[in-house]
Amino acid sequence: MAKPAATPPTATPPMLRRVNAGKLLGVLSKAGVMTGTGLIEATGLTRATVHAVCNDLISMGWVIEHDPGRDDTAVGRPSRRFEFNSRAGYVLGIDIGAGKTTVLVTDLRGETVAKAVRSVSGDSTAAERTEIVHETVVEALETAQVSDAQVLAAGAGVAAPVDRGGNILADDEFWRRFDAGMGRRLTELHGWPVLLENDANLATLGEHWRGEGRNVDDLAVLLASERFGSGLMDSGRLLHGSRGGAGEMVYLKLVEGVGDTHGIARIARERGAAAVADPAVPTALRALCGDRPVTAELVFTAADAGDAVALEILQHVSARTARVVATLGILFNPELVVLGGAVADAAKSLLPEIEQQLAGFTSTPPRVAVSSLGDAIVSVGAVRHALNYVEQNALDLSLSCRPG
Fold first, then answer.
1. pTM of the model
2. Best-predicted range by mean pLDDT (175-184, 326-335, 395-404)
3. DSSP state for residue 400 in the 8-state scheme
4. DSSP assignment of 162-218, as one string?
5. Cα–Cα distance between 128 and 210 in angstroms, integer?
6. Helix (H, G, I), strand (E, B), or coil: what is residue 82?
7. DSSP string, 1-16
8. What percent of the chain has pLDDT over 90?
């Protein structure tokens, strides 16, 4: 016997107040001073609802009301004017990377107030990583002169699948380095909620908010440095899958011409090191490196100078990356694929070859661009993730910063 369809939740007055408050804050946080009429037009809410919710938000410190503007030609009562209080509180954007942790402290418009970065050993345990994140957070807050009580939420990105509930899928040795109740422990230490999310998903939020993907709702971001990982957005919504595995790229082991999840930086570095180690291979890369280990950046530099070996390495990297982009294009059909990560800026030189190769793989290739956010791509997305939470839960959050 078929189960009856689930009954949708009833829209109670408290629920409607939260939804309407989120709508108003979402509009005000992106604008300057707005009139009640402007908010009515932007949100589709009634005048009575706009004024009632704004009164609530003013009393809670989220919104500042300015003196009514005077217009001698207007008839009737002057319009009320409202402005978002961007210093009503703060959020954190945390990038818990394999080699370093980055923490951004921002106001509620997402403007950076302070930044702190600390290195982390690649073989650190999850508990050690949590301690380093804690120390980096403390440094960033001290620099910003912001207390834990003023922080409303923190978004945090990890290089592991994370489900919709913020739980890390830890069935892989690499992913287990990030799973030791990290979010719970940081909340115990600081008191604010920690919203864990996959780093590529946060990179996608960052690109959609302030990067190359603005105004693009069907978007894929390919983190392509040491390991390939992707974040996927369909019609403006992140895709997670049943256990947070949407966008994971272990399937590349099955793709001819790719064979593993090694990213652009790793392939360039390993092939460059092999060339330098072989005395029979004539390459300017050897002199360029000197006593230093080969890096992807040095391979790109040698290629820019016309070194034939380095150019051949990057041609291989381009063809391989094109196959990865093509699989995303065929499976998910995004309008745009953005290459992000530490090598994104250097990867601009790969775009012509990638685009040429793509045309041979699919009749509907996506546009390809490189991220303009640099190594901040995940932490910027983490800020956006925290801001989304704040806007959606504004009426339930306690503010310690009130407009003066």
1. 0.87
2. 326-335
3. S
4. B-TTS-B---STTGGGG-SSHHHHHHHHHSS-EEEEEHHHHHHHHHHHHSTTTT-SS
5. 32
6. strand
7. -PPPPPPPPP--HHHH
8. 68
With a CB cutoff of 8 Å and minimum separation 6, the contacts of 402 are 61, 88
Residue 171: band (very low, low, confident or very high) from pLDDT cuts 50, 70, 90: low
In DSSP terms, which residues pair with 233 in a beta bridge? 219, 238
Tokens representing residue 59 in the block: 């009393």
DSSP state of 123: T
Mapped onto helix, strand or coil, the DSSP state of residue 367 is strand
Tokens representing residue 178 in the block: 């990030």
| CA–CA gap between residue 188 and residue 387 (Å, rounded) | 21
The secondary structure of 217-258, three-state, reads CCEEEEECCCECEEEEEECCEECCCCCCCCCCCHHHHHCCCC
**Overall average pLDDT of the 377-394 stretch:** 94
- The strand order across the sheet containing 219-223 reads 237-238, 229-234, 219-223, 336-340, 367-370
pLDDT, tens digit, 9 for 90 and up, residues 264-280: 999 999 999 999 999 99
Residue that the structure tokens 């050690």 belong to: 128
Residue partners of 315: CB distance under 8 A and separation at least 6? 353
Q: Tokens 């290089």 appear where?
A: 159
Q: How far apart are the first and last CA of the chain?
A: 62
pLDDT of residue 68: 80
255, two tokens? 């793709």
* Per-residue pLDDT tens digits for 75-123: 567 788 999 999 999 999 999 887 889 999 999 999 999 999 999 876 7
Phi/psi at 140 (nearest 5 deg)? -65, -45
CA distance linking residue 232 with residue 382, whole number of Å: 15
Q: Model confidence at 401, in pLDDT bands (50, 70, 90)? A: very low
Distance, C-alpha 47 to centroid of its chain: 35
8 Å CB contact between 207 and 340: yes
Long-range contacts of 233-241 (CB under 8 A, 24+ apart): 233/204, 233/208, 233/334, 234/332, 236/208, 238/201, 238/204, 238/205, 239/332, 240/162, 240/163, 240/164, 240/201
Cα-to-chain-centroid distance, residue 3: 39
Longest dimension (CA), the chain: 87
